[in-house]
Amino acid sequence: MTSSNLTEAVDSICxxxxxxxxxxxxxxSEYIRLTKLGLNxxxxxxxxxxxxxxxxxxxxxxxxxxxxxLGGTNFRVCSIHLNGDNTYDLLQTKTVIPxxxxxxxSKELFSFLAQKVKDFIATHLSEKFxxxxxxxxxxxxxxxxxxVSQTAINRxxxxxxxxxxxxxxxxxxxxxxxxxxELDALNLNVHVAALVNDTVGTLMSRSxxxxxxxxxxxxxxxGTGTNCAYVENLDxxxxxxxxxxxxxxxxxxxMIINTEWGSFDNQCVSIGxxxxxxxxxxxxxxxxxQLFEKRISGMFLGEILRVILADLCSQKLLFKSSSSELETxxxxxxxxxxxxxxxxxxxxxxxxxxxxxxxALESTLEERKAIKxxxxxxxxxxxxxxxxxxxxxxxxxxxxxxxxxIDVGMDGSVIEFYPGYESLIxxxxxxxxxxxxxxxVQIGIAKDGSGVGAALCAVVA
Length: 461
Ligand code: ADP
Ligand code: MG
Known about the structure:
By secondary structure, the chain is an alpha/beta fold. The chain folds into 2 domains: 1-51 and 211-450, Hexokinase, domain 1; 62-196, 2-Layer Sandwich (Nucleotidyltransferase, domain 5). The chain has helices spanning 3-17, 21-40, 99-102, 106-124, 126-133, 175-185, 198-209, 242-249, 275-282, 293-296, 298-314, 334-341, 349-359, 365-396, 399-402, 413-417, 421-433, 435-438, 449-460; strands at 49-50, 62-70, 74-83, 88-96, 138-144, 148-152, 155-158, 190-196, 215-222, 226-233, 254-258, 406-411, 441-445. The strands form 3 sheets. It has a 6-stranded mixed beta sheet. It has a 5-stranded mixed beta sheet with strand order 4-3-2-5-8. A two-stranded antiparallel ribbon has the order 6-7. A hairpin with a 4-residue loop joins strand 3 and strand 4 (88-96). The chain is globular. Bound molecules: adenosine-5'-diphosphate and magnesium ion. Adenosine-5'-diphosphate binds at residues 223-224, 298-299, 333-335, 338, 412-414, 417-418.
């Protein structure tokens, strides 16, 4: 093994992951094309789901609301007090969902959830609730992170379960009604006012907390997965049909759309594909789907790196020998990439320790430099892909004609913790729309999308 062989191999990998300015522009155009398809027809790859949320908060809203979040392992119940000055107070409890309820009947699951709401009110809100109970109901926003077909702000039919849930009789039923029935059975004066996707919640939460009078037009999540919601012109959502559009238009000219952008360009017409992406995709239960997400989000970046390192090792270009850790699928978490990116020590000590700890391998400085270069290529591609589609949305919505400053809310560990991620998004934006426009985009972290965001959906409902 010679060092120039490793350098050559790393160069060639980085080339595969790099995205030129031309490619950025074509990704952005392809995104606009598929956006329009999804707005015009049901059943397109990029679902463009109407949220029926037709207003964003100003930050001056007040009151006390409930929010619940059924997403995966935990069920969260929160109360949110909006102070009316862009700030809020949030109280929350978390319960692990018993395994048997995840595969039982809808009655068992939803009565359990309703009971948790009752317990929460008794513990944290009893005074407030007693005084309110007589005259008005507590409004509740329901964050439900499973595929639903929404027909109104608080109506949504469950299409299928994911993430280990399999409550068969719930499929095809309205999840808001299932929850409402069980809340009613406990005599709780609580109204399920909104069914909320977490990206819509992120947009709403940013819109409420964002300083100044700028309009927030996007909510983006880059965590385990990735998705985005944005503010669309009602008239552009032609798949709703003329009658529905004209009814809705009486209240508002806009609606928030949940893009489900994780499935953008599953054909890889514009986003490109490497042999490493294909190796990772093969091991997933939804092979060939969510390919945009599989190049961007936290669930996948660590595995992409592992697959590359294992390949270089098998070619005898990296490490003296392999280890069972290096051969173990999903062994590397995306936080490992963050730590390597953040290692600026002369001898890359943090990287050396990480490789020892996670992969049980010794490394030379030269090998660590090579690994860092690969990590940078993976991280940069992720942020560039995200930046390219953000540029697509800005152009599609004519954001620069409508707003001075364009506000974007983001959430998720990748965007929050990956070093330099926002700068890389901005680099891509700048390459597509130019630096003058890029500088008008304001990006901020939006916390508690499924708490305060869901409550805000209940407010505007
Ligand atoms: P969720 O998607 O469940 O809401 P998060 O937003 O925390 O949760 O995202 C979790 C994902 O983020 C995981 O895939 C994990 O690998 C990744 N992650 C966690 N910490 C970091 C970090 N420091 N840097 C980059 N990615 C991270
Ligand atoms: Mg999240």
